[in-house]
From TrEMBL:
Matches recorded under InterPro entries: Leu-rich_rpt, Leu-rich_rpt_typical-subtyp, LRR_dom_sf, LRR_domain-containing, LRR_R13L4/SHOC2-like
Signal peptide: none
Annotated ranges, domain Disease resistance R13L4/SHOC-2-like LRR: 30-132
GO cellular component terms given for this protein: cytoplasm
Keyword Amino-acid biosynthesis belongs to the record: no
Function comment: May be involved in the regulation of spermatogenesis and sperm maturation.
Pfam families linked: LRR_14
UniProt keyword annotation of Repeat present: yes
UniProt gene name: LRRC18
Name of this protein: Leucine-rich repeat-containing protein 18
Length: 255
């Protein structure tokens, strides 16, 4: 693959360089990987490659995403994390095939999230962590297919009820926000209980690797619950004299 140097002023890429960055994923999808290329602007030449299934522009220095990104009408996976983006284009609502959207670690404010996000009816994962959001748009509550939402490391003081009650939500990451303790602790517990039930119901239908992934996620949720309500916990195996390594691990913070 042709390499483009990185520098503070950024680099531009040609159509041929971009074309050589297309890779086939394990499930047969075409991914255009332009991560870590030192880009400071959205490369317009990639609009000629708008038939790809996945687009990775993460870990660059891009400040603006143009309205023309909606030309990627087959896109199911869009990764924009770790740039300098402070606003998403309204046209993103036209990208209705999107299943995964990662815009974490940017400069996004609440005003930078267009209401058109509520048109992404098929979206499964949205990561808005590590931004400057002081509130969550209630329009996200319209995305009934959401499984995972990342809101960690923002400026949030509350989460809209319609977000935490999304019917298919399995993971809601809200760590390191300035929540009022009492109100948010109750919300966390309610969400955790419901998520555990989802995992238990679905476990029998999962393959081995997927089941293990869910089990690990459930262990993480248990650790979150122990953080919310600290205090003595009943031993799982009462005959043990001292905790084993697994028990010790369960008391560590969920990272």
């Amino acid at each position: 693959m042709a390499q483009v140097g990185r520098g503070m002023k950024g680099k531009k890429i040609t159509f041929n360089v971009a074309k050589n960055c297309i890779r086939i994923t394990f499930d047969g999808k075409r991914r255009l990987d332009l991560s870590k290329m030192g880009l400071t602007t959205f490369p317009k030449c990639i609009l000629r490659l708008n038939d790809v299934d996945e687009l990775d522009l993460s870990r660059n220095m891009i400040r603006k995403i143009p309205e023309s990104i909606s030309k990627f009408q087959n896109l199911r996976w869009l990764d924009l994390h770790s740039n300098y983006i402070d606003k998403l284009p309204e046209s993103i609502g036209q990208m209705t095939t999107l299943l995964y959207l990662n815009i974490s670690n940017n400069k996004l404010t609440t005003n930078g999230l267009p209401v058109e996000l509520n048109q992404l009816k098929n979206i499964r994962t949205v990561n808005l962590g590590l931004n400057h959001l002081d509130s969550v748009p209630t329009t996200l509550g319209a995305l009934k297919e959401l499984h995972e939402v990342g809101l960690n490391d923002n400026l949030l003081k509350t989460i809209p009820a319609n977000i935490s009650k999304l019917p298919k939500l399995k993971k809601l990451n809200t760590k390191r926000n300035p929540f009022p303790d009492t109100e948010q602790s109750t919300s966390f517990i309610d969400s955790i209980k419901r998520m555990e039930n989802l995992y238990l119901v679905d476990a029998k239908d999962l393959c081995g690797p997927c089941l293990r992934k869910c089990q690990l996620a459930r262990e993480n949720l248990n650790k979150m619950k122990s953080m919310v309500l600290p205090g003595p916990r009943k031993a799982i195996f009462p005959n043990l004299v001292s905790p084993n390594s697994m028990a010790k691990d369960s008391n560590e913070d969920w990272r």
